[in-house]
């Protein structure tokens, strides 16, 4: 099927009234929860997952995509109005966005972010539509050695791009792999790390763990500094960018989109990397670099476009290879698996309506965001200022219902609570949980591909170096580790990530 | 009690790593070309233990950050409320379990005071949750749990 036919098929899937309505509900809920301070996309999506469980697969997927974009954009709104980034990639938005808000230009900053995101989302969607079928075709030729190397690269990128020390991130990833091994070994049928508990035979459910560590863990951490928690919300006046704003925005949006589209495909943390790179690029190209950090609209439009373009294209490795590049994507895979959809190169040929429907609904989601966010910005601002002691019990309710409804298992509620406490502990000791979450889903895949590779090569590990693609991937991974150990590049990374803490 | 961040995290890694290592030794190892279920766990848990030890060592050598004071009350209250939710959801049904969870969790906050308004709000929210999740979204959670039905049967 050609790309054009695919898009037509997608349009007919996504624009049924039900699917459109659920896309709208998804975007709305995603934004509403995403704007709440302290809730990043991972926590938002894991809490909203149960809303998709009762739906047919295509509708659920489309709603999930809506939630995903809504939560991303909600995060930017909080970053601009409150100077509170929901996740590391919206840190850059706070730099100039909040400065603009303090100068009374909050509405124009929000509009710049929304317009930039919409443009980037449109280009990103087209990019997926064109390149995903090609990559899926290519992926069918990948052997287990290539997959294993790609997984290693993804894990290493996520460690390098995490704030804090590399050693801590490495330990967190290993812990994730160990947790991923809980359950019945698929090859031998041996139950590993189950402590004789029947509930653990199927392994730890990924969504339950993510809900605990991110959703509940955030609640517990926020309650810790309840007394010092005071934040003001900048007022929003006019929303329309001036003619001058438009002139200054267009270049950064186009360049940011380009940066984001390319970097988003990289496994690891391409979204984070793209917003930082776009900011650095705009500052370098600007005739007034001194204005950056003091409310330059270029510093909002560029990184927001890059951020959204990358958020879009990071679906490519997830959909075509089944390998999530970020913790958010890992969660999306969790949501797909609940629906009985296994992402990978076969999804395109076996479930074309699902695949193309998702792609078209991404674009619809972006369109809805533009029309939902700007008019409703007053509502979002009100939501942000709801006091935390009213909000957190409701967040607890959503995490608990979410954990229970995945397998209708009370045991999962207890598991989620335990991992919530663990997530609190990680925050206390300064360990970022993203590598753990990614490793939890990539670890079992890594073991499987390693076993298959060595079975095919009769125990000869040199195949990882003789396949050109595998070798290239491992060389990039090695270079990343070396680069982080060199003092000069380390300084750049620390500067980029320090604000994310 | 003052413990550095590195000591706490490193100890956790070593404890889990060593335990996982000892358990992995009991699974069949196999060989590199036919890996048994113990092969991969052995490598990963050994690495985790080593990394944990290195983190402890780093905490001893450098000027490690200390863990800020932990507030036990919210931690205990929220966890207890969630466990209660788990124990009640199948017996009492979704709305009542949600009601208990909201009030229990709210006790964790210093700013929470019992009031008729707050209780009413929690009750309304619990009812809305029941309608949305059970009636509208069709999740297989009972509105009125097994215990209530047993009462009604008499």
Helix content of chain B: 55-70%
Secondary-structure-derived class of chain A: mainly alpha
Shape of chain B: flat
**Rg for CA atoms of chain B:** 24 Å
Summarize the amount of helix of chain A as a percent range: over 70%
* pLDDT averaged residue by residue of chain A: 85
How many strand units of chain B?
0
Number of domains of chain B: 2
Determine the mean pLDDT of chain B.
Answer: 89
Keywords (chain B): Membrane, Transmembrane, Transmembrane helix
Transmembrane segments (chain B): 7-27, 39-57, 78-108, 120-139
Protein name (chain B): Tripartite tricarboxylate transporter TctB family protein
InterPro entries (chain B): DUF1468
Draw up the topology in text.
The complex is a heterodimer of chains A (501) and B (154).
Chain A lengths: L2 H12 L2 H18 L6 H8 L1 H4 L3 H26 L8 H12 L3 H34 L4 H17 L5 H15 L2 E2 L6 E2 L13 H19 L18 H22 L5 H16 L12 H16 L1 H7 L5 H12 L8 H4 L1 H22 L3 H8 L3 H20 L2 H19 L5 H23 L6 H4 L1 H18 L1 H12 L3
Antiparallel strand pairs in A: 1-2
Helix pairs in contact in A: 1-17, 2-3, 2-5, 2-17, 3-5, 3-10, 3-15, 5-6, 5-7, 5-15, 5-17, 5-18, 6-7, 6-13, 7-11, 7-13, 7-14, 7-17, 8-9, 8-21, 8-23, 9-21, 10-19, 10-20, 11-12, 11-13, 12-13, 19-20
Chain B lengths: L4 H20 L14 H23 L10 H21 L1 H13 L9 H21 L9 H8 L1
Helix pairs in contact in B: 1-2, 3-4, 4-5
Q: Can you summarize this structure?
A:
By secondary structure, chain A is an all-alpha fold. Chain A has helices at 3-14, 17-34, 41-48, 50-53, 57-82, 91-102, 106-139, 144-160, 166-180, 206-224, 243-264, 270-285, 298-313, 315-321, 327-338, 347-350, 352-373, 377-384, 388-407, 410-428, 434-456, 463-466, 468-485, 487-498; strands at residues 183-184, 191-192. In chain A, 73% of the residues lie in helices and 1% in strands.
Characteristics of this structure?
heterodimer; A: 501 residues; mainly alpha; B: mainly alpha; 2 domains; 6 helices; flat
